[in-house]
Write a structure and sequence with these properties.
Number of helices: 5
Helix content: 25-40%
CATH class: Alpha Beta
Shape: globular
CATH topology: Aminopeptidase
Structural class: alpha+beta
CATH architecture: 3-Layer(aba) Sandwich
Strand order of the largest sheet: 1-2-3-4-5-6-7-9-8
Distance between the termini: 8 Å
Order of helices and strands: EEEHHHEEEHEHEE
CATH superfamily: Gcn5-related N-acetyltransferase (GNAT)
Largest sheet: 9 strands, mixed
Number of strands: 9
Amino acid sequence: MALFRFPSEPQSRPLIRTGNLYLRAPDPDDYSAWAVLRMESREFLTPWEPTWNEDDLTRQSFRLRTKRAAREIASDEAYSLFIFEAHSETLLGGLTLGLIRRGVAQACTLGYWMGQRHAGKGHMSEAVRGALRFAFSELALHRVEAACLPNNEPSRRLLERVGFRHEGLARAYLKINGAWSDHLLYAALSTDKPTDGRA
């Protein structure tokens, strides 16, 4: 069972809790752990992410990220969250419910990354399940969309395992690692039957 906190509370407090994790907005004090995790995972993450800016890992760049995340949460535009292991408070990665569309859509787009040393241990599956519950209950969204590169087999398996359904292929959908790349499109609906672990 995930527990949620509302975005009006201080950003250092969790928005989402799951059995082994908690997710909250980035805080300036997270800089060192974030920079180390991103740097040591750079080769692992590069094939799946947009090209990093030269100043991507600087403290100033991170400070701007935290301010933008807080602003977007307050305005219900996006929820950019860090993923922490609950018992050790170790930073594992990040997850974003972004591009929130209200009105007739009630939808958002899911993105995520995991530090290399924490990958393959089930943390992201647990985090995404918690994020889906948050999106459908607290945010009252109807649809969460996700996309992944066709050759990103771990991401494809993760999305299907937590209940996303494959809906198609978008040509040259996102510029990843410097190249416009096709992406497989997935979505989960609030009306879908929960998969194991999502109930």
